[in-house]
Write a structure and sequence with these properties.
Blueprint: E1 2-9, E2 16-25, E3 28-34, H1 35-47, E4 57-59, E5 64-67, E6 69-74, H2 112-119, E7 122-127, E8 135-143, H3 149-152, E9 153-163, H4 166-173, H5 182-208, H6 217-220, H7 223-226, E10 232-236, H8 239-251, E11 256-260, H9 268-274, E12 278-280, H10 298-306, E13 310-312, H11 324-333, H12 338-343, H13 347-352, E14 370-373, E15 384-389, E16 392-396
Parallel strand pairs: 1-4, 1-5, 6-7, 9-10, 10-11, 11-12, 12-13
Antiparallel strand pairs: 1-2, 2-3, 5-14, 7-8, 8-9, 14-15, 15-16
Helix pairs in contact: 5-8
Length: 401
Amino acid sequence: MEIINGLIHTMGAQGVIKHGAVRVENGKIAWVGTMRQWQEMRHADAAGSKLDGTDQILDAGGGWVMPGIIEAHCHMGITEEKKGMEGDDCNETVDPVTPWLRAIDAINSMDAAFDDAVRAGITAAMVGPGSSNVVGGQFALIKTHGRRIDDILVKAPAAMKVAFGENPKVNYSGQGKSPSTRMAIAGMLRRELFEARDYWQRKSRALEKDEDFQEDFTKECWIPVLCREIPLKAHVHRVDDIFTAIRIAREFELNMTLDHCSEGHLIAQELAEEGFPAIVGPDLTSRNKIEVQNVAFKTAGVLARAGVQVAITTDHPVSQIQSLPLCAGLAVKAGLPLEEGLKAITANAAAICGVADRMGTLEPGKDADIAIFTGNPMETFTQTLYTLIDGQVVYKRNGRD
């Protein structure tokens, strides 16, 4: 397959290519360049009898050709739309510490949100448990098209969800048990991490000595976190909760993403010095809790200008997933540089989610997850023309060829 006549936003080293083209082979990006280079390549292929007349060519008609958009934090398919309790598998609110839960066991890829995502040019999403528990369980990075979750997995586990602030307090103080304070949230997480680290050290020593070791299912799930293979995914809104999360991550030498980071603009310089990335949002929603009273679209821009790596989230279904590019646009309107707005839903999102080796930029060797738009996807009236996942057209507007 070849995509021609596009304004190619590679989001990578090649920058923006006017009058560009992309070649796809075996589900991967094979080549990106100018139309002139593409025509020369086609002539060479024809001379070498490498063209068999079956190549599919998509004419972008001057539209924007971009890496598929990535949602860095959401609950699509695990909190299904229109189904109430029967479709809500997001929070196991009977035990505040449940690291062994896996999002892949609850994501329903038949949820309407998947189709909405594809129509918006969103090709991948980080999906996982909610924030009712101190430790909620394991997130997964998935593609947005396919009936079987096992077939659309990119990375699982991809992160371990932890939560600070109001949500764990509200859910468990009402049950008459811990945590009912922020001290208890931090203390319970520290205890769990302490026990998990001790388990990992004992297992490592046993393996070194070739001794028998009884594995514990409830602690095995922590090893990728302690090895820094995947991050803590910390639900934090308020300044104090952000700093508590950082304190604990430093104590245990862990990688972490600051999800929501609603008051991050108040401490932008400190966060830049700490070096943890932020997944900002959802801003397209009401300030319905005390801890989100300072939610603002300006947060992403303030953080980015300070030097924090930023992605943007809808937190679907808090905001609908198809609004993700518009949320990035509203952040740009509030001060986020235009290029950073595009990166926040492509290259930065891929890097923060740990999948930059496969997606986020249009570069040879990466998955052919591509979105073609009539113009800038962050603008309201822009239409999605095509969405490709692994080189296959999974959406085309109005039956376009």
